[in-house]
Design goal:
It is a multi-pass membrane protein. This protein is an all-alpha fold. The protein contains 14 helices and no strands.
Length: 284
């Protein structure tokens, strides 16, 4: 028989639930504003009634967004999908491979090298933008897709996180059994190691996808051709013009709403890999 809840426990539970509700409201408030504001024209936005659905014109805003400047917005959208999708996928593979190597193999200077990786975690990416621009200029890839793609292939935090996942998910016995059966090291990693550490791969992918999708400073430094812009830089350019031309406001707001969708889809569709990974190793 359960004990009755005391007033102290009741107040504690109420305080915790209240704090959670406030946190949810705080996080969802910008999204709700974005959803309702995307249905307004420039006059409705400037009038300050963005939270009402009066004068609903979402279809018109989407149409104008698709038609403006020969549909350059969706060209930016495709660029962002390329930068974030391909960049995050390649970065996740590199990070997991590096983390697997740090966990499985013993080599000279291993911990010192890993210390350098941890040191890289402490360096902000904005501080590296100018050196990377100078390197890209020397190689001759400034103002190309490679100028944004190559720098996002390496993520020190992803390497660190991958080593932690490998230590928790990959038993040495499974690797030894594969080697005894005649599998080479690449086959062991690809068929056993990578599959076992898939929750870690998905985690690194989502972190990197979000970081690259929201990346602003690196494309700002590297790119000058508008056709190469990602969404973040393109919407910033429109927003800068909105002060002089208010007709840009509906384009910026509607474009920002569509820009949120890939992040939501990625997290919702890949969360099952996290759930599956929570019970890994719990049953022998």
């Amino acid at each position: 028989m359960s004990k009755p809840r005391t007033p102290a426990r009741w107040l504690s539970g109420t305080a915790v639930n209240g704090a959670l509700v406030l946190a949810v409201v705080y996080m969802l408030f910008p999204l709700v504003w974005l959803l309702t504001a995307a249905t307004k024209d420039a006059g409705g936005l400037l009038a300050g009634n963005a939270f009402s659905f009066e004068g609903f014109d979402l279809g018109g805003n989407l149409s104008r967004l698709a038609e403006y400047n020969d549909g350059i917005y969706f060209h930016w959208y495709a660029n962002s999908l390329l930068y974030a999708g391909l960049g995050a996928l390649a970065c996740s593979l590199v990070s997991v491979a590096a983390g697997y190597a740090f966990h499985v193999y013993d080599f000279r200077g291993k911990e010192k090298l890993f210390g350098l990786v941890l040191l890289g975690v402490l360096v902000p990416t904005t501080a590296l933008a100018l050196p990377m621009y100078l390197l890209a200029s020397e190689v001759g890839i400034v103002n190309t897709y490679w100028a944004v793609l190559i720098p996002v292939l390496v993520n020190p935090f992803g390497v660190y996180l991958s080593r932690v996942f490998c230590a928790g998910y990959i038993p040495d016995e499974a690797l030894e059994a594969a080697r005894i059966d005649g599998a080479g090291e690449m086959r062991v990693f690809w068929s056993i190691g990578l599959r076992m550490v898939m929750p870690g791969f998905v985690t690194v992918f989502l972190f990197q996808f979000t970081a690259v999708w929201n990346n602003f400073f690196l494309p700002l430094v590297m790119l000058s051709d508008q056709k190469l812009y990602p969404l973040s830089l393109g919407l910033y350019a429109w927003n800068s013009n909105a002060h002089a031309e208010p007709d840009y406001y509906p384009l910026v707001v509607t474009g920002s709403l569509l820009a949120v969708l890939p992040l939501v889809i990625a997290f919702v569709s890949l969360q099952r890999h996290w759930k599956a990974g929570l019970t890994a190793g719990s049953v022998k």
